[in-house]
Design brief:
metal-binding, about 40% helix, Thiosulf_SoxX, Cyt_c-like_dom, heme, Cytochrome Bc1 Complex, Chain D, domain 2, Sulfur oxidation c-type cytochrome SoxX
Length: about 130
């Protein structure tokens, strides 16, 4: 039998997972501001935010990881910018890699939708 603290925790988890919203829409035709791209780069390279360099080679980032694929030719790999956004956010099952270690950044609340949008704007320039 579960104790009451465990029941409360499971109830809280069930409720919080039910209220998670879907990711925002990203328009591929939108030309992001240079400041958003620069902010996206800072977020992507930040160890406390995107931390893309922990797993990926990206742009001129120092000491990249090699667990994930290099972030190159992103427009060619993701002609639909929304799919790239969804992959980072954590909802695009069509791009989900089995046994991937990539966190679902938006779905889990690691970073905000706006931060993900800026990171995607930066990654899309690579």
């Amino acid at each position: 039998m579960m104790n009451s603290k465990m029941k409360q925790l499971l109830t809280a988890l069930a409720i919080s997972s039910a209220v998670i919203t879907a990711p925002v829409s990203v328009q591929a035709a939108d030309k992001p501001a240079a400041s958003d791209i620069e902010e996206g780069k800072k977020l992507a390279f930040s160890r406390s935010k995107g931390n893309c360099l922990a797993c990926h080679m990206a742009g001129d980032g120092a000491q990249p990881g090699n667990i994930g694929p290099a972030l190159i030719a992103m427009k060619m790999r993701y002609p639909d910018k929304q799919k790239l956004y969804n992959k980072v956010w954590g909802t695009d099952d069509s791009t989900k890699v089995p046994n991937s270690m990539m966190p679902e950044f938006g779905k889990s609340g690691i970073i905000t939708d706006d931060e993900i949008r800026k990171i995607v704007d930066y990654i899309y320039t690579l």
